[in-house]
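Title: Prediction job returns without error message
Component: structure pipeline
Severity: low
Priority: P3
Assignee: unassigned

Description:
Job completed but the reporter wants confirmation the result is attached to the right record. Sequence as submitted:
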Amino acid sequence: QKLSSNPLVTDLWAEDQAIFEQNVASQKAEKLRTWRRTKQQEQEARAIIEMAAAEVDEMEILRAEKRRLVQNTKNLKAVRDLEKTNARVAKVMESKRQHEMERQQKLLSKA
């Protein structure tokens, strides 16, 4: 009965073993939490990169559409300029034909 209150009566090895196992378990849990947090951050980073890549594709589509519109505008202007030129050429040709007809008419009336 005198020894029951003595601190040396307790099994120190068992206490130390229990504390060690508790520490190992808490370290394992902390390692798992850290691993999960890291995986979550990596996943979020991938999602951000994928979104950024998708936005780049949208911007590239818009740029291509603008290039197409500019090219179409240039083509339309070229066609309009060509039509104006053809109209002027036709007018000049008609004028020459008219002059030639008048000249021939004068020659026929003189003869």
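Comment from assignee: result matches the submitted record. The two ends are 163 Å apart (CA to CA).
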